[in-house]
Protein: NAD-dependent dehydratase
Amino acid sequence: MKIVVTGSLGNISRPLTELLVSQGHEVTVISSDPKKQAGIAQMGATAAIGSITDPSFLTETFSGADAVYAMIPLSFTEPDLGAYMHRAAKSYVQALNETQVKRVIVLSGWAADLVKAENVEYLFDGLNTSLTIMRPASFYTNFYQSIDLIKGKGVIGKYLTLRYNGLRAFLTGKTGLLMGNYGGDDRIVFVSPKDIADAVAEELQLLPEKKTIRYVGSEEMTCNEAARIIGTAIGKPWLRWVLLTDKEMLQGLKMAKVPEKLAQTLVEMQAVTHSGKTLENFHRANPKMGKVKLREFAQEFAIVYHQK
Structure:
């Protein structure tokens, strides 16, 4: 098949591209970064350099494709995250309608239907195609964003400020902690991007007549259990995950000069996870869990952690 993969060489798109190429598919990878072109070619795929918010570019790239894997990367530099995601989704829909691609896989999130700003799934409902919405749980790779926090860097007074992906989050000034307005003994499903890639590759072989939704996870546990696994791997077995209130989280984001609308969306995204509604939806779907467990990822995390 001719398959278009979006997401450049990210945590999901890289293993997905490798898998699809190994299966003999003709793969085109979309990236906004011209510097990724050589790396994409080395994987045996074709690079298409452009923006997913440009429907003309997408239409040209999707032309002749049998299937498309469509994802919208979260942007913490956008003051209005919801407006950005809707703009990108509408760009996808326009291009997919014009090219009449037969099979479309859309990457969403396990809280997408519960967070208004993040929910763009409905925009794809009008497509005359075989459509699957992928709802992965909390990524293992999100732990990389907390390395500076775990190391206790950047202490300012009694607060600690952490920057990642353009976001500064408000956190208390203690080392050996993870924080958010979900955490502690909240039960969470975590997922490996490799397991997501495997699930997407499986779905690309199918052609359901009606829209389907597939949840993807690798392992379920409490946030503190996850913190201990990560902590043990890096030599900090006391690592724990502190639960902030929504008010504390919002106050901290504002202190860190995160735009108010974006701050509210980020707090809402974490609040629905703390509420347990995301876990209820996941269990209701009864998905098959992936192969990669957190202890396996923790060894990879430890290597990166000690290199910083």
Q: What stands out?
A: The domain at 140-187+220-307 is CATH 3.90.25 (UDP-galactose 4-epimerase; domain 1). The first strand starts at residue 2 and ends at 5.
